[in-house]
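Sorry to interrupt, but I need a hand with the structure work. Please put the record directly below this note.
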Amino acid sequence: MENAGFQTLDGLLTPTRCDRLRDEIVRDPAGSIRAGTRHLMSHPSVAGLATDASLLQVARQWVGPGAVPYRATLFDKSPGRNWLVVWHQDTALPLAERRDAPEWGPWSIKEGVIYAHAPAWALSQVVALRIHLDASTLENGPLKVIPGSHAGGVLSDPEVFGAARDRTSIECLVGRGGVMAMRPLLIHASSKARTPGPRRVLHLEYAASLDLGAGFRLAVA
């Protein structure tokens, strides 16, 4: 699990619960939920799911007993909202305030939230749980990962692309209601979907504590 940097777990959510989450989150009556929607922790259904006992149990296996959810993003890949993602690591964290430090940055603001690219010691305290509201198949642009690549720390873009060229990757196929846990520094990518059906994933992120250390505190977004 930790050596690979990821883990897949089948059937943590029932089909009925997937349907309910789809109706409450994806079909938001205000029309504000769209592909790649960030900062969903304030949505009641998302917050309720993020603190579900079964998901917290998984997160605690990765980051310890104090696991706390801090960020939620919806990825809704469909024929009208289809995209590819090149090989990369997830290195930006939402922070409560800006603090100048050599290891942090560049800084940015996304939808009113402060972000900084973080050092490896901070990212090692984080895990993402990808909740599959639809099955992830070979045809609908599943996540591809390079097992063990998180162990190399924060890499430059050329180093990431070199790893993708030289190392073996696998496609992560996860059934509806399944969960994929992954470290943010795991090198990953995805292709465009080749089928008309949707591929909806709720990406929940957990940390060992909102206080990362050295005066840095995560924002809940």
